[in-house]
Design brief:
This protein is mainly alpha-helical. It starts with a strand and ends with a helix. The chain has helices at about 5-10, 20-30, 30-35, 105-115, 120-140, 145-150, 155-165, 175-185, 190-205, 210-220, 225-235, 245-255, 270-285, 295-309, and strands at about 1-5, 75. It is built from 14 helices and 2 strands. Helix 4 (about 105-115) packs across helix 14. The chain is about 55% helix and about 0% strand.
């Protein structure tokens, strides 16, 4: 069953999750030599026809290769064709070091580490408490009222001092990048541009993508254009909405889930927007575990990424 839009179709014919039932069925029907080699007139696709994507047990088998001699693909369109994984499918390649892992497998690995889930004492102590503490500090030091007051007074020194205090309130930003940020705020011009752009990023009302790109440019100008830096302030001020990006961890979590985040080491809106989409997907799919915010999603991503390395 193939979504009608072309992008998803291209992804389908390269590599797609296949349902458990059809995987077993094809294993019985297709000769061994035909399951290992696909001729040019055959298709690599997805066998979900007649079984449905909405049932999780049919979408967690990983990539499978099959022949059109034994499977009839059915094209669907509209709402029925939409699926968060298939619309953002990461195309595999032979150099991939991290293997696909179903969401059920990821949840089991998380629960092995934190048996009481997101509400257990161990999880709170090791993952959540210090982030909540940093969030409360950020809410106190970088609230919109004080921010606007300092901007009106042109008191960029105080804004930057507070921003650095918030950055140092957790271990999320790497030490070298904290130093890079501090060095970048050593000039009057750097402080001014950083302060104005950070306010717009957090509290501006214009298009968010543009605000993100504007802040990216300021960070580049002051020599601290890092994913941890740009995403940290969003995440720690608004953990209910935005995701923190630690590149390798985020890449691994997405690769395990076969979710394309369009990662580029250079700061860009496409990558961050893709990561937000991935984060929202996880939050929705993990609803039975009663996640509260992106702090819980980020901790889950860290856990499954760590298990793959």
């Amino acid at each position: 069953m193939i979504p009608g839009h072309f992008v998803s179709f291209v992804a389908f014919v390269i590599a797609l999750p296949v349902i458990h039932y059809s995987g077993g069925l094809l294993a019985d029907l297709i000769p061994k030599d035909e399951t290992s080699v696909v001729s040019q007139d055959e298709l690599i696709g997805k066998s979900v026809a007649e079984f449905g994507l909405k049932d999780k047990k049919y979408t967690e088998e990983g990539e499978k290769i099959f022949s059109l001699k034994y499977v009839q693909l059915i094209k669907v369109e509209g709402e029925e064709a939409k699926h968060p994984i298939l619309d953002n499918l990461s195309v595999s390649n032979s150099s991939r070091k991290i293997k696909y892992q179903s969401l059920t497998q990821s949840i089991n690995k998380f629960l092995q580490l934190y048996p009481n889930g997101f509400y257990g004492e161990k999880y709170h102590k090791t993952e959540r408490n210090y982030k909540i503490k940093a969030h409360k500090l950020a809410s106190e030091l970088l609230n919109s009222e004080d921010f606007e007051k300092f901007l009106h007074e042109l008191n960029y020194d105080e804004i930057c001092k507070r921003a650095l205090t918030v950055a140092n309130a957790s271990n999320l930003v790497f030490p070298k990048e904290k130093k890079s940020l501090k060095d970048g705020l050593s000039t009057t011009t750097g402080k001014k541009h950083f302060s104005e752009s950070l306010y717009q990023l957090l509290y501006g009302t214009s298009d968010f993508a543009q605000r993100f790109n504007d802040f990216s440019k300021v960070l580049k100008d002051i020599g601290t254009a890092k994913w941890t830096t740009i995403s940290y302030f969003l995440f720690i001020v608004f953990p209910e909405k935005y995701m923190f990006v630690k590149p390798k961890m985020t890449e691994h979590a997405a690769e395990i889930s076969a979710f394309e985040i369009n990662y580029d080491p250079e700061l860009n809106w496409l990558t961050y927007n893709s990561i937000l989409t991935f984060s929202e997907y996880l939050k929705k799919e993990l609803s039975e575990l009663q996640l509260r915010d992106m702090i819980d999603v980020q901790s889950f991503m860290w856990c499954i990424a760590k298990s793959a390395t």
